[in-house]
Amino acid sequence: MPPRTRGGYTSSAPRRRPTGSERRRRVQLREVEPAADRDPVEHPQHDRDETEEVFEGAPGGPIDRCILRSFDKHIAAKIWLGEDRAPLKLVNHGAKLQLWELGMERSRIYETVHRSGLASLTSCSHRVTSRPMLSAFCERWQPETTTFHMPFGEMTITLDDVASILHIPVTGSMISFPQPLRVDDANALLVELLGTTDVEASRETEQCRSPSVRLLWLRDHFSTITDASSDDDIMFATRAFLLHLVGCTLFADKSATSVAVVYLELFRDLSMVGSYAWGAACLAYLYRQLTTATRFEVRQLGGYLTLLQAWIYEHFPEMFSSPDMSYTESRPRALRWRPHVIPDSLQSVRERLDRLQISEVCWEPYVDHRAEHPLPDIAWYSGCLKCGQVVEPYHPERVLRQFGYIQTIPPRPFTPPRPDRSILLEQYWERWTDHVLTDQSRGRRCHYSGSGESVPEYMAWYDRISHRIVQPPQLRSGFTTDARSSLPSHAASTSDTRAARALTLLRLVISGGKEQSVDVFWGALNEAHGILAGSDETSASHSTPSPAPASHSTPSPATLPFFSPATFVYPPAASDDPPPLIVPPPPASVAPPAASGPPPPLIVPPPPASVAPPEPALDSTASTTVYVRAKRKKKT
């Protein structure tokens, strides 16, 4: 039987893509005859073809492009093929907010701003943003999943992050506009809501060449109004200030100088400004800006970059952050950090992220902040976020580790509906409590807080569908032709994950101090051994611990299956990494287990400064060099 193609007829010729008319006919049929047992609001998606397309792998991954379908146009694919671009130009208005402050003489304006829920934006915006750091993270953003694809799994900015970092509302009415605003409509809106004349409004939109106004124009016309002015002037100035505020923060576009007049419609009724879900709209807008910046030809990044930069500081504190020691938990978390420009180049940041380990991530950074700002239930919402004509999917099931749960293989991401289906989206958003992840979908919590655990099969699946390494091996710093490719294989990635989980577990126990009982240490060692011995290559002799000698009531370190005194190597004395777990050697009465083959030599830690160094061997150049240097240093 000849195969059935997408056009709806049978032929022996290869399959072809459906034409536009065929797609429209399918959409009409589906809209006329909906399934009786299906809620049209339950899963808002684009209409998809009945036959799934088959995608070939890309160089450097993904092997299976069933998820990242547009990867060919991604900046990471271009970098892997040898093409590169400079760090993105960042749109940041942190300094402009200081040019229009609300003091005691403008208390009536501040009261309205405070009731809107946006007052925290006046003080928490970063004046400095790091181009290499934000550009490197933008290269890891994937539009299909709206997540950052890190070497160990996916991460993203959640509604919980927005609420904790900015302290703005994430629940409320969806920010929606019926259609894009035309220039004539923008002029009429300026006259009605800001009290300008037709001539002033037309002159301003003509200068912007769009239905927008300059931020400078708003400050020049309305920043001088005080409480002594008339009620109408104060109302106009309040709307102008709010428009200036969201244009500098939540909805900063790539014009870098103006703000769209369409947002002024949200401030028509000043008593209703606090009823909008500003945090959800901000997140949708930032998602779209990151998606646009993943294209190779794009050179600029908009959106509220304070949110993105503070999110990086929170989850990667050891790599990029500089904390403010005067911070208190009652303030937005964006104020916890001192923003600075990192001295590294874009390539250097790429390589640091390529080498990033799962133990270097702070998965739950807001534990101390929960007393002041609990986890909002809407953070578990799985659906679409909307900001005007921007609609983006939101998938908390892909980043369960950021909520303290064990990461499982998530379902395929859904495609959001078109913005013109606003009624569908608003109904879905209004019933968000029906679309949060259930306890069954969340799965099990991590054994230890912040351990970032995942199911065993997750990394093999992730390695197949993702592009984990951005910088090609042949383009890395210090690469030579004899160097082995550092692309991790499936087996290596799985073993790396086990090692990271075991190290995280041991560090958590060690940080608890000596006051803990022996049972806690013994249980942690046993669990770490179980994690490390989970591979198929582990021998049967290592699957169960050796029996303890009869002369001891508790097992000695020598009886642990992963400890061998003859092969134990002590780490260097000076290191920036956290101290590893060093097991002491067994007592002399206990014989070490027999080792297969000649054991490597035991490396003894360096002697203390008070002990004289041993006499160097004449046939050892390295030892002689060390001894001469030490002697010269002593003379000096």
What report would you give on this structure?
With 636 residues, this protein is mainly α. 32% of the residues lie in helices and 5% in strands. A three-stranded antiparallel sheet has the order 2-3-4, with no helix packed on it. The chain has a two-stranded parallel sheet with strand order 1-7. β3 (147-150) and β4 (153-155) form a beta hairpin. α5 (159-166) packs across α10 (278-293) and α17 (490-510) packs antiparallel against α18 (518-532). The longest helix has 21 residues, at 490-510.
Give the topology, please:
Layout: H1 20-32, H2 75-80, E1 89-90, H3 107-115, H4 131-138, E2 141-142, E3 147-150, E4 153-155, H5 159-166, H6 183-194, H7 198-208, E5 212-214, H8 215-222, H9 231-248, E6 258-260, H10 278-293, E7 300-301, H11 305-315, H12 317-320, H13 346-354, E8 383-387, E9 390-394, H14 422-430, H15 439-442, H16 458-465, H17 490-510, H18 518-532, H19 621-635
Parallel strand pairs: 1-7
Antiparallel strand pairs: 2-3, 3-4, 5-6, 8-9
